[in-house]
């Protein structure tokens, strides 16, 4: 049975805690002179990136290499994708090369699910961001960072601020943090909240100043201008004044609260440079923790004859066409 | 006869009781000191989880005898095992290497049961990635035979002739929540693979 990591909603509390605990043990190995582990020797991990990313791709590459897997980087630019090849044909090509895991980033929401369940590939699929849907390993590394600083999740209050509408990080985080027992509040202008947010396991607020004193962790989201084709707020300055984190707001956070950002940051927009570089900011730590968490995910998915975590493919995929069924076994 | 702890086959018999285990660990502590001519550069590394418990007990006995404390840590070998692909993915255990480091030291690996020798092979590989010890020795509470690799123990609590259909279960107070330490020998093919191998 192939299992995948497509969404944080697929993870039970036990799964999530297992990933965080495994990452914690792996992080302890990072100080050793020889950081490489032999665990995934002979396995092949393909980084299939249809969208630009430096942080996530590098992080997955380092994670796979530290576990001794062979890594093939496959990005849309300079590949047949730019010549018009579809996700399906790319997947079939990779399948023929014998990839054990495919780490996929795509601009279309649901691309990772399609790749995992359409019967095009027998690899484990790890979602590294699909459109505005999910980015589970980012949420896991955020949770890992929070647990280290806050001690646990029970009753901890996490505030996520900004462009929730376009943010796969926010979606993944809300699901995962709810599973782990934290209380999440989303703060955004009404235009940057998705339809149906009332059904998410979190609260919604529009006034950042009212929420700040009650936050154990505050996560600032980037305003994703590249995904915007309308007027979501009047001016950059007004957005920044109402929803940006500056030194004054930082001073009103509780003493031990931490400031997070999934990156890339736009300094001066959602977060001031002063705050980003302050000692409350754990943004650089988030990047470092990303490698440990991704090693844990690859280890738990790939090392055994059965994965310890993840999404189990449904028996029948509704859109599956008959010709590709043979490869699903 | 006390109740059988969980995970131990029903008709298992006790092959080592608390006093036997205590005497065996005391003897091993003395043997380590005798062979090393003191405790100077000795470091104990227990293989989780019960080996780590045993290594702390041996360290305490060395401290009683010599009056010096030897560094003691734990070494998880899961990532180095050769049977990872034969079983579902499993959780990692704690690796804790004392600040002194392993370079130039006499490392004594400690485990509860020595069986196929594959765990120790993995431990030697793991140790190799941590540094270069002066020498590596092995202490086990029970040697049950059936080696699959050219590995032997330097210090053995008890040599226990077994058949491969039997299972050896070690239960320790600190780890298993039992009232008395004991080693059990029983026949339970269903749980045999769970034994430390």
Describe this structure in words.
- The complex is a heterodimer of chains A (329) and B (197).
- Chain A has 329 residues and is of the alpha/beta class.
- Chain A contains eleven helices and eleven strands.
- Chain A has a five-stranded parallel β-sheet with strand order 8-7-6-9-10, covered by helices on one side. Chain A has a four-stranded parallel β-sheet with strand order 3-2-4-5, with helices on both faces. Chain A has a two-stranded antiparallel ribbon with strand order 1-11.
- Chain A starts with a strand and ends in a 17-residue tail after the last strand.
- The C terminus of chain A is likely disordered.
- Chain B has 197 residues and is α/β, with parallel strands linked by helices.
- Chain B has one domain: Rossmann fold (3-Layer(aba) Sandwich).
- Chain B has a five-stranded parallel β-sheet, with helices on both faces.
- In chain B, β2, α2 and β3 form a beta-alpha-beta unit.
- The interface between A and B is medium-sized, with 25 and 20 residues.
How many individual domains of chain B?
1
Overall spatial form of chain B: globular
Q: Give the helix tally of chain A.
A: 11
The CATH class of the largest domain in chain A is Alpha Beta
Please give a quick description of this structure.
Chain A has helices at 13-29, 55-66, 87-97, 111-117, 136-150, 168-180, 208-211, 236-243, 247-251, 273-276, 283-302; strands at residues 3-4, 44-49, 70-75, 101-106, 124-130, 157-161, 183-187, 203-205, 217-220, 258-260, 311-312. Chain A has 329 residues and is an alpha/beta fold. The radius of gyration of chain A is 20 Å and the shape is globular.
